[in-house]
From TrEMBL:
Keyword Oxidoreductase among UniProt keywords: yes
Name of the protein this chain belongs to: NAD(P)-binding domain-containing protein
Keyword Oxidoreductase tagged: yes
InterPro entries: NAD(P)-bd_dom_sf (IPR036291), P5C_Rdtase_cat_N (IPR028939), STEAP_metalloreductase (IPR051267)
Pfam families per the UniProt record, alphabetical: F420_oxidored
Keywords: Oxidoreductase
Domain Pyrroline-5-carboxylate reductase catalytic N-terminal stretches: 3-94
GO terms, molecular function: oxidoreductase activity
Organism: Paenibacillus soyae
Gene3D superfamilies (UniProt xref): NAD(P)-binding Rossmann-like Domain
Length: 217
C-alpha cells in the first residue's frame, strides 16, 4: 500500500506531516506546483516523502485529495478512469462560502456524491471532523482525537484503517458513507463551538466510553 496526498493547503500539509512521520507506507505528495512543494517539504524537514505532480500521485493505492468540495468534484470527473479500483479518501466538508451552511441538501453528503462520481473506486470518508490544527498537533493533554472512518466497501475501510493505524489518532469505523450526512453537518457545529469557546482552529471530537486501541503518541 502506498499513499498519496494531493494539495498543499492546511489539510494537505498537516496530513503529509503525520503520514510521513508515523506511517508505515511510502508517501507521495502531489500538487499543482511540485517545485514549490519540494521547497515546502524541505522547510518542513519531511523525510520519506516523494513530491510529484497531482497526475503522478494517482499511482498510489490510497489517494487523499485535500481539495475543497467543488474542486474535488471536478477532479473526480476528470480522473474517473485513473481512479478505478483505488481507495479515494474524502476529507471534504461541503460548507458554503461564508460557513453559514452547506452546499449539499439535507439527506446528501459530499462523500456520497464523490462515490456516485467514482462508482468503480472505493470512497472512504475520514478526517472530516478533525480540524487542520489538530492534525498538525494531534496530542492534546495526552489525548488524541477520534477520526470517524466511513465507507461502503468493508475491505477498503479495513485497508485504510490498517494503513493509518500508526498515526496519533483513534480511528473509529463509523459505518456507511451515508453517515457523512451527519458527520459533515456536525463538523460545522464543531466550528461554531470552536469560535464560541475561542479554540478555533483547534477542535476535534473524542467520544467517551468506547474501548478500542489508541495509537501511540
Ligand atoms: N481546514 C480544516 O481544518 C479542514 C478540516 C477537515 C476537512 N477539511 C477539508 O479539507 C479540504 C481542504 O481544506 P484546506 O483547509 O486544506 O484547504 P486549503 O488550505 O484552501 O487547500 C486547498 C488546496 O487544494 C489544492 N487545489 C487543487 N486544485 C485547486 C484549485 N483548482 N483551486 C484551488 N486549490 C486547488 C491547492 O493545493 P496546490 O496549490 O498544492 O495544488 C490548495 O492548497 C476541504 O474539502 C475541507 O472541507 C478541512
Amino acid at each position: 500500500m502506498n499513499i498519496s496526498v494531493l494539495g498543499t493547503g492546511n489539510m494537505g500539509k498537516a496530513l503529509v506531516k503525520r503520514l510521513s512521520e508515523k506511517g508505515n507506507h511510502p508517501v507521495r505528495w502531489g500538487s499543482r506546483s511540485p517545485e514549490e512543494t519540494k521547497e515546502l517539504a524541505r522547510q518542513l524537514q519531511l523525510s520519506n516523502v516523494t513530491v510529484s505532480t497531482n497526475e503522478e500521485a494517482l499511482q498510489a493505492d490510497i489517494i487523499i485529495p485535500a481539495f475543497h468540495a467543488a474542486v474535488l468534484k471536478e477532479w473526480a470527473i476528470a480522473h474517473k478512469e485513473q481512479l478505478k479500483q483505488k481507495i479515494v479518501v474524502d476529507i471534504s466538508n461541503p460548507f458554503n462560502a461564508d460557513f453559514s451552511g452547506f452546499t449539499t441538501a439535507w439527506g446528501e453528503s459530499s462523500a456520497e456524491q464523490l462515490q456516485a462520481l467514482l462508482p468503480e473506486s472505493s470512497v472512504i470518508g475520514a478526517f472530516k471532523n478533525t480540524f487542520f490544527k489538530v492534525v498538525d498537533e494531534p496530542v492534546h493533554e495526552g489525548q488524541v482525537s477520534d477520526v470517524l472512518v466511513t465507507g461502503n466497501d468493508e475491505e477498503a475501510v479495513k485497508a485504510f484503517m490498517e494503513a493509518v493505524t500508526p498515526l496519533p489518532f483513534r480511528f473509529l469505523h463509523a459505518g456507511k458513507l451515508e453517515n457523512n450526512r451527519t458527520i459533515e453537518r456536525f463538523t460545522l457545529l464543531e466550528l461554531e463551538l470552536a469560535f464560541r469557546y475561542n479554540t478555533y482552529p483547534y477542535i476535534s471530537l473524542q467520544l467517551f466510553g468506547i474501548k478500542t486501541p489508541v495509537a501511540a503518541n
